[in-house]
Amino acid sequence: MEQASRPADWKHFDDFAAGIATNRLPVTDRLAGRSLDITLQNGRAVRLNFTSADRVEWAEGSASGQDWYEAIDVAPDVLFVNMTLSGRPDEDEAFIVNLSTRRVLSVRERVRPASEAPGEPRVRQDYTPGIVGDPTVPATGMEPAPTRDLIGLTAHYEYSPQHVYEHVYLSSQRYAWQNIVGVQRGHGDVDLATTYKFDDNQYVFGFREFIIPVASIFFYNWDAMRSTGKFLGVTSQGIIENKPAGALIQMKSRTVYDENKQPV
Fold first, then answer.
1. How far apart are the C-alpha atoms of 44 and 12, rounded to whole Å?
2. Structure pTM?
3. What is the mean pLDDT of each run of 10 residues along the chain (264 residues)?
């Protein structure tokens, strides 16, 4: 949505991002000194060489570079890897990797010019499953795939004592949110959303907002009742930033739909 259509009291990305990582899990250095070869189902082949706790050398086809990353242990043998790209500051990429099963899910994000897709969220997300290591050797475990498991669920996410949000998962394409504690209190909307099941009680959820240029990717661990992820958005100063976030999850209720009256 264009800036002219933004409500006068609507908060910018940076207004609510401060403190939203209070309940986030800590980063880990367990990938430092390791390399991952990732083959995705769309044909991409990416090599990641983690030279330190926060620097990664990457190569994809004829392109290569060295950039910032962070890794978080989000479940047993599962890491959330968040990368920025200095040569493409309007993009980032997250890899959710199970080192045991060798399953991986890539989520690429790009902040588009407002004129590129009128009426759509400014931030685009692309989800692609893949495999770590030799692609000719089958991975084990569950292949990440779109899921309807969250439809009808209402849950609360406490990012900090000053950041509590309610999510209502409406369909396979949209979710509703409202801020119940924080600077956005009283604000809410319905935005585009995508949910992948990564493994039992593990989900990757992303949303793309209409009113302001911001999107997010979160890993839900329902065994630990934690949400771990990040935002990509445009600040009030027009700067594109990748911001960490993490929350404690409380399940509140679930709507059950009749078999012949299901959301999309």
1. 34
2. 0.95
3. 65 83 98 99 98 98 98 99 97 99 99 93 98 97 98 98 98 98 93 99 98 97 99 94 98 97 98
Residue with tokens 């400014």: 122
